[in-house]
Structures are given as C-alpha cells and as structure tokens.
Design goal:
It is elongated, with a radius of gyration of 29 Å. With about 90 residues, the chain is mostly helical. The protein contains two helices and no strands.
Length: about 90
C-alpha cells in the first residue's frame, strides 16, 4: 500500500492540504518580514542576482577532459575491433 493511500470518502485532497500549508507558511513569512500591508499581487525582490562567472571550474575542466579522452579511446577501440573482423561479420 502506498504511504499516501486513503479512503475514497476522505474529506480533502493532498493538493488542498499542500495549498493550505503553503498559504499558512506565506502568511507566517509575511508577518516575520513585516509585509502584512502588501497587495496580494505585489512582487517583492528580496535579493539580487550577481554574475558568478562562466565555464567550468578547474576540477570540472579536468573531469570533462578525462571523459573526452575516454570517449575517444572507446571510439578508437571499437573502430580497431571492427576493422579486424571479416567483411561479412562486421555488418550490423
């Protein structure tokens, strides 16, 4: 039986419970931040974005290079193995 199984006559849905919990937490958060007087459709920016750079970190670069070498070696090994087969056995 699934952890969230319930009788068909259960009085509410899990979606309704999640929404009620989300609304309650949003009300709590608004009270903590002193936002009670805001319109419901107001969009608040509580932080800002900063450019974090681009590309891989040195560790990620080493990992990517290692994966690329492995892929190339696998291709060469497969090519050599297929080249050694007689013509009729090399067909897929």
């Amino acid at each position: 039986m699934h952890f969230s199984s319930k009788p068909r006559r259960y009085s509410t849905t899990l979606g309704a419970l999640r929404q009620t919990r989300a609304d309650y937490r949003a009300t709590q958060e608004a009270a903590v931040l002193g936002l009670e007087d805001r319109e419901p459709d107001t969009v608040l920016v509580l932080t800002d974005w900063q450019y974090g750079g681009h590309g891989h970190t040195p560790g990620e670069s080493a990992l990517a290079a290692s994966i690329a070498r492995d892929l190339q070696l696998n291709r060469e090994t497969a090519r050599d193995a297929l080249a050694g087969l007689p013509a009729d056995e090399g067909e897929w």
